[in-house]
Amino acid sequence: MRSANVDHFPGLNGLGLSMARVHIAPGSVVPIHHHPGASEIALIAKGSVTAGFISSDNTVYKKTLNEGDIMVLPQGLMHFLVNTGKTQALVRTIFNSSKPDRQILVHALFSNNLPSEFIEKITLIDVHEVRRLKALLGSFG
After folding, report:
1. Average confidence (pLDDT) per 10 residues, the chain, 141 residues
2. Which candidate, 113, 119, 111, 112, places its Cα nearest to that of 137?
3. What is the Cα–Cα distance from 60 to 73, expressed in whole angstroms?
4. Threshold 0.90, pTM exceeds
5. Rounded to whole angstroms, how far apart are CA atoms 89 and 79?
C-alpha cells in the first residue's frame, strides 16, 4: 500500500483529501478495518475484488467489483477487500480527509496490553483462543 496523506505530503494540509494505491495479490485481503476520520471511495483500477462493509445495525453490504467499478465505504464503518480474481488487483482509494487514520480490527482486539481474561469477557472468545491470537500478533497478556 502506498499512501498520499498529510504525513507524506504536507501540501495536503487543509485540503480535506488523501488517497492510496493498494496492490492485492490473488487470494489476499485488506483485513477488516475502519477509518475513524474519513469516508473512502475505492476504485478498482485493475482486477477483481470483493468489497464490503458492515453497517451500524450489523447488515453486511458486499459486492464483487471489476475494473472501473467503485464502492463508497462510509466513515467509521468496518470494511474489507478480498482479491477474488486470478490476477493482482490494483485499487485506488480516495478519502475525504487529509489524515483518515486506520484501525485494523484484529490488531485492536489482540495487539494490546489488555489481559487475555479481560478480552475473553468483553468478546466472549475463549481465553485460550485469545492467548493464541495475541501470540500470533505479537502481544502477550
Report:
1. 72 84 97 96 98 97 98 97 97 93 92 92 94 85 59
2. 111
3. 12
4. no
5. 17
* CB contact at 8 A, 38 and 95: yes
Q: Tell me, letter by letter, the H, E, C secondary structure of 56-115.
A: CCCCEEEEEEECCCEEEECCCCCEEEEECCCCCEEEEEEECCCCCCCEEHHHHHHCCCCC
* Grid cell for residue 54: 458492515
- Give CA–CA dist 46/65, Å, rounded: 10
- The length of the chain, given as a count of residues: 141
∠ Cα 92 108 27 (to 5°) = 45
> What pLDDT, on a 0 to 100 scale, did the predictor assign at position 140?
59
